[in-house]
């Protein structure tokens, strides 16, 4: 019996990776990697601290802050900071564990980590959020640095919060260093960073579509269901539209926005949603908009769109973890969905992944094809890595340069997953290779080899 408290999210992430490795030929070819798996499952360091700050009424408030520095074999710890009331050690360990292998798949020199606090920005004034950011960084600055640990934003941490934390870091350390990514464009940030996760997701799925169709199809004319309405969902929607797709849904924690006309959700509506998110308002505000209210239906009570969108070709869960369950996975297949890729981390429950993988094996080329977040949403951290490179060289690349590099990284990531799956999990004739197996094995193998070379296991 373990002496550790249960950590459901982390245990789910670990079992998903471990089961893939065990069901491949990896351990037959490299039995020593079983030891590497045990070692890599334990963070190198977990930092927990209190954050005290004063609200607008002059009352003292206290929150818990965390930084999980999981693995630095490939480079400085790299992963976002999340400010949300659900933040706990299990969630941050799951996110940090996924981040290790996601970062490995980018091909850049980055380790894996994650952090944040159980602070809820909703209902707080700008001044209160700023004071919390300063108080949070007053402790975190001791544990991070451009060659040690480089956090970024995540849920509840936008470029505005990154700015306040960067200012606090600079004041505490008395130096300018590229210690956070997602910075403002005129003080060290990279162009395309806000768009990168959503754009990269679409680039990855574009390669899936082209491979599956023998180069005959693209996003053009595809009906695409998306969850979430934040940064990832917005830019995935805009890029997919640019490539000719029809966007049929967005969502938030309260419910789902379903398009009711043949044009689907338009760029104007995405920009309207982006403005709502900046103001920390819900999608229900759209029901009061005379311009848009007749172009969609809003389904409340926390409903997700998967069973409400009708026929769909592509599904992109882009909100948070575990947003597609077994029943919804089966409904997506019934609705004709051919591609599903996670814009969020661990967006599908394990039961849902098993439904997708079973269909992939049984229906072969006529099945749904699943891509895990550690590969499909790696574009965000990839451009964070490019931001680190620009900071180190004191350079600033154009948007076109960064976008081309992002496209190259996502193409290489897809091919790596594809070829690794073919090598370690042979598919039957006419069957798509397992991208989840390919991603897990490729990312893990790279990290395990680096750990071995550095003496972390032998």
TrEMBL record:
<feature type="binding site">
    <location>
        <position position="153"/>
    </location>
    <ligand>
        <name>substrate</name>
    </ligand>
</feature>
<keyword id="KW-0547">Nucleotide-binding</keyword>
<feature type="domain" description="Glutamate/phenylalanine/leucine/valine/L-tryptophan dehydrogenase C-terminal">
    <location>
        <begin position="190"/>
        <end position="455"/>
    </location>
</feature>
<dbReference type="InterPro" id="IPR050724">
    <property type="entry name" value="Glu_Leu_Phe_Val_DH"/>
</dbReference>
<dbReference type="Pfam" id="PF00208">
    <property type="entry name" value="ELFV_dehydrog"/>
</dbReference>
<dbReference type="InterPro" id="IPR014362">
    <property type="entry name" value="Glu_DH"/>
</dbReference>
<comment type="similarity">
    <text>Belongs to the Glu/Leu/Phe/Val dehydrogenases family.</text>
</comment>
<keyword id="KW-0560">Oxidoreductase</keyword>
<keyword id="KW-0521">NADP</keyword>
<dbReference type="InterPro" id="IPR006096">
    <property type="entry name" value="Glu/Leu/Phe/Val/Trp_DH_C"/>
</dbReference>
<dbReference type="GO" id="GO:0005829">
    <property type="term" value="C:cytosol"/>
</dbReference>
<feature type="binding site">
    <location>
        <position position="231"/>
    </location>
    <ligand>
        <name>NAD(+)</name>
    </ligand>
</feature>
<feature type="binding site">
    <location>
        <position position="78"/>
    </location>
    <ligand>
        <name>substrate</name>
    </ligand>
</feature>
<dbReference type="InterPro" id="IPR036291">
    <property type="entry name" value="NAD(P)-bd_dom_sf"/>
</dbReference>
<dbReference type="GO" id="GO:0000166">
    <property type="term" value="F:nucleotide binding"/>
</dbReference>
<dbReference type="InterPro" id="IPR006095">
    <property type="entry name" value="Glu/Leu/Phe/Val/Trp_DH"/>
</dbReference>
<feature type="binding site">
    <location>
        <position position="99"/>
    </location>
    <ligand>
        <name>substrate</name>
    </ligand>
</feature>
<feature type="binding site">
    <location>
        <position position="102"/>
    </location>
    <ligand>
        <name>substrate</name>
    </ligand>
</feature>
<dbReference type="Pfam" id="PF02812">
    <property type="entry name" value="ELFV_dehydrog_N"/>
</dbReference>
<dbReference type="InterPro" id="IPR006097">
    <property type="entry name" value="Glu/Leu/Phe/Val/Trp_DH_dimer"/>
</dbReference>
<feature type="site" description="Important for catalysis">
    <location>
        <position position="154"/>
    </location>
</feature>
<dbReference type="GO" id="GO:0004354">
    <property type="term" value="F:glutamate dehydrogenase (NADP+) activity"/>
</dbReference>
<protein>
    <recommendedName>
        <fullName>Glutamate dehydrogenase</fullName>
    </recommendedName>
</protein>
<comment type="subunit">
    <text>Homohexamer.</text>
</comment>
<feature type="binding site">
    <location>
        <position position="197"/>
    </location>
    <ligand>
        <name>NAD(+)</name>
    </ligand>
</feature>
<feature type="active site" description="Proton donor">
    <location>
        <position position="114"/>
    </location>
</feature>
<dbReference type="GO" id="GO:0006537">
    <property type="term" value="P:glutamate biosynthetic process"/>
</dbReference>
<keyword id="KW-0520">NAD</keyword>
<dbReference type="InterPro" id="IPR046346">
    <property type="entry name" value="Aminoacid_DH-like_N_sf"/>
</dbReference>
<dbReference type="InterPro" id="IPR033524">
    <property type="entry name" value="Glu/Leu/Phe/Val_DH_AS"/>
</dbReference>
<dbReference type="InterPro" id="IPR033922">
    <property type="entry name" value="NAD_bind_Glu_DH"/>
</dbReference>
<feature type="binding site">
    <location>
        <position position="384"/>
    </location>
    <ligand>
        <name>substrate</name>
    </ligand>
</feature>
């Amino acid at each position: 019996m373990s002496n550790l408290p249960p950590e459901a999210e982390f245990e789910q992430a670990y079992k998903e990776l471990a089961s893939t490795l065990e069901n491949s030929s990896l351990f037959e070819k490299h039995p020593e990697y079983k030891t590497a798996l045990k070692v890599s499952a334990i963070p190198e360091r977990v930092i927990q601290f209190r954050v005290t700050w004063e609200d607008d009424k002059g009352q003292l408030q206290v929150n818990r802050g965390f930084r999980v520095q999981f693995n630095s074999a490939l480079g400085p710890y790299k992963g976002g900071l999340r400010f949300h009331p659900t933040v706990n050690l299990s969630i941050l360990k799951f996110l940090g564990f996924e981040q290790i292998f996601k970062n490995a798949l980018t091909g850049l020199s980055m380790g894996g980590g994650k952090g944040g606090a159980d602070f809820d920005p909703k209902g707080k004034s700008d001044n209160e959020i700023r004071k919390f950011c300063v108080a949070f960084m007053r402790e975190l600055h001791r544990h991070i640095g451009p060659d040690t640990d480089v956090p970024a934003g995540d849920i509840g941490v936008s470029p505005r919060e990154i700015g306040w934390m960067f200012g606090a870091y600079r004041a505490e350390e008395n130096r300018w260093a590229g210690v956070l990514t997602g910075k403002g464009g005129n003080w060290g940030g990279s162009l395309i960073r806000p768009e990168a996760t959503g754009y990269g997701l679409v680039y990855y799925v574009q390669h899936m579509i082209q491979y599956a169709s023998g180069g005959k199809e693209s996003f053009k004319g595809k009906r695409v269901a998306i969850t979430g309405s934040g940064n990832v969902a917005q830019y995935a929607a805009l890029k997919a539209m640019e490539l000719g797709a029809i966007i049929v849904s967005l969502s938030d924690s309260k419910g789902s926005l379903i398009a009711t006309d043949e044009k689907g959700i338009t760029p104007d509506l995405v920009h309207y949603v982006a403005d709502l998110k900046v103001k920390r308002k819900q999608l229900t505000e759209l029901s009061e908009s005379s311009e848009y209210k007749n172009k969609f239906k809003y389904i409340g009570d926390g409903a997700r769109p998967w069973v409400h969108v009708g026929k769909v070709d592509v599904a992109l869960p882009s909100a948070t973890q575990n947003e597609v369950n077994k029943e919804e996975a089966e409904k997506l297949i019934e609705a004709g969905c051919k591609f599903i890729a996670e814009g969020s981390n661990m967006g599908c429950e394990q039961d849902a992944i098993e439904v997708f993988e079973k269909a992939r094996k049984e229906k072969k080329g006529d099945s749904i094809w699943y891509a895990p977040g550690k590969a499909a949403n790696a574009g965000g951290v990839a451009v964070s890595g490019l931001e680190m490179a620009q900071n180190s060289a004191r350079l600033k690349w154009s948007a076109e340069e960064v976008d081309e590099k992002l496209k190259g990284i996502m193409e290489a990531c897809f091919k790596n997953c594809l070829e690794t799956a073919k090598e370690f999990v042979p598919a039957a004739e006419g069957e798509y290779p397992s991208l989840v197996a390919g991603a897990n094995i490729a990312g893990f193998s790279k990290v395990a080899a680096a750990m071995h070379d550095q003496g972390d296991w032998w």
